[in-house]
């Protein structure tokens, strides 16, 4: 017809991917944009190569799509953000959650075995001790699970959320004798499970960071 077809190419850095379902979620989010020709997501390097029509879509749109799917946009290879600084802040935040989670989880485990003389049920004290750290440690997991469901994806975040959520809700029901009795108190298990999951994500993110540094060098 006498016209040229010109496609743009870019490689976007993404943070927060953990499994193949994350790859699928990001790819689907980007493919919904107008002007996208091809999307290739690499879980190992946490990068996405995009072929697109620059007259219809651009990096601003990529950023919105990736963040709305629940992941971190770390810039492109042409214009990278402070990736290392962002990664260090995220690792530090996760480490604080892990330490607090294990500290309170072990405390709750000990409380379950100790015979305490209190003017009220011991389960109420365990509820008060468990709830703040449980929310603090588990919030990122629940957020990730919610975003996955929002994007119509059943990934590991949804399963993790269900596991720790059921443990905590069962404990809550047992505390107030709602269907379950006080034999079903799993506050320590809920918090320790959330902490172990956070530890796994921390080690995974740390390993990916080292791999990224090796590739750069």
Query: What count of domains describes the coordinates?
Result: 2
Number of helix segments? Answer: 6
The major sheet is characterized as:
4 strands, antiparallel
Shape: elongated
Mean pLDDT: 88
Helix percentage range: 55-70%
- Counting helices, strands and paired strands, the structural category is alpha+beta
Low-confidence spans = none
Percent strand equals 5-15%
Order of SSEs, N→C? EHEEHEHHHH
Strand order of the largest sheet: 2-3-1-4
Please report the total strand number as a whole number.
4
Radius of gyration over C-alpha positions, nearest whole angstrom: 22 Å
What separation lies between the terminal Cα atoms?
A: 46 Å
Classify the oligomer.
single chain
Descriptive report:
- With 217 residues, the protein is of the alpha+beta class.
- It folds into two domains: 74 residues, Alpha-Beta Plaits, CATH 3.30.70; 133 residues, no CATH class.
- The protein is built from six helices and four strands.
- It has a four-stranded antiparallel sheet with strand order 2-3-1-4, with helices on both faces.
- α3 packs antiparallel against α4 and α5 runs antiparallel to α6.
- The longest helix is centred in the middle third of the chain and has 31 residues.
- The relative contact order is 0.13.
Please name the defining characteristics of this protein.
61% helix, alpha+beta, four-stranded antiparallel beta sheet, Alpha-Beta Plaits, 217 residues, single chain
């Amino acid at each position: 017809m006498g016209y040229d077809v010109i496609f743009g190419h870019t490689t976007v850095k993404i943070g927060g991917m953990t499994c193949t379902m994350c790859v699928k979620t990001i790819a689907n989010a980007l493919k919904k944009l107008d002007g996208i020709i091809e999307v290739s997501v690499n879980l190992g390097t946490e990068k996405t190569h995009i072929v697109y029509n620059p007259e219809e879509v651009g990096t601003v749109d990529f950023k919105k799509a990736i963040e709305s799917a629940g992941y971190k946009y770390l810039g492109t290879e042409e214009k990278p953000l402070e990736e290392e600084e962002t990664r260090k802040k995220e690792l530090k935040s996760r480490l604080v959650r892990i330490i607090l989670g294990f500290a309170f989880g072990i405390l709750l485990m000990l409380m379950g075995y100790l015979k305490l003389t209190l003017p009220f049920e011991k389960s109420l004290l365990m509820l008060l001790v468990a709830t703040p750290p449980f929310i603090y440690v588990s919030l990122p997991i629940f957020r990730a699970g919610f975003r996955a469901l929002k994007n119509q994806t059943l990934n590991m975040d949804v399963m993790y959320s269900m596991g720790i959520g059921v443990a905590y809700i069962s404990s809550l029901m047992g505390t107030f004798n709602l269907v379950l009795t006080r034999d079903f108190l799993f506050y320590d298990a809920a918090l320790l499970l959330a902490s172990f999951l956070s530890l796994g994500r921390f080690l995974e993110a740390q390993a990916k960071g080292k791999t990224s540094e090796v590739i750069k060098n």
